[in-house]
């Protein structure tokens, strides 16, 4: 059986983050996602591997640095 594709809402719920965070991770070109028409779709196994590789933490640090540099 193949793994189903899931939505941004489902990824956000799976990771316990806001949908805006998921969209920021997509925008940074690091969260594994596929665009299907106007929708983003994900395989949860790919998302889990991405998180376990520490990519969510790295992106959070990069976003934090970006906002800090804007404040200066």
| Beta-strand residue fraction | 5-15%
Widest β-sheet, arrangement of strands: 1-2
Which residue ranges are poorly predicted, with pLDDT under 50 across at least 5 consecutive positions? none
Instruction: State the order of secondary-structure elements, H for helix, E for strand.
Output: HHEEHH
**What's the pLDDT, averaged over the residues?**
86
Global shape: globular
Number of helices: 4
| Gap between N and C termini | 52 Å
Radius of gyration: 13 Å
Number of strands: 2
- Helical proportion, percent range: 55-70%
Main sheet properties: 2 strands, antiparallel
**Alpha-beta content class:** mainly alpha
Which keywords apply here?
two-stranded antiparallel sheet, 2 strands, mainly alpha, globular, 8% strand, 72 residues, 4 helices
Structure description:
- The protein is built from four helices and two strands.
- The chain has 72 residues and is mainly α.
- The chain has a two-stranded antiparallel sheet with strand order 1-2.
- The termini are far apart.
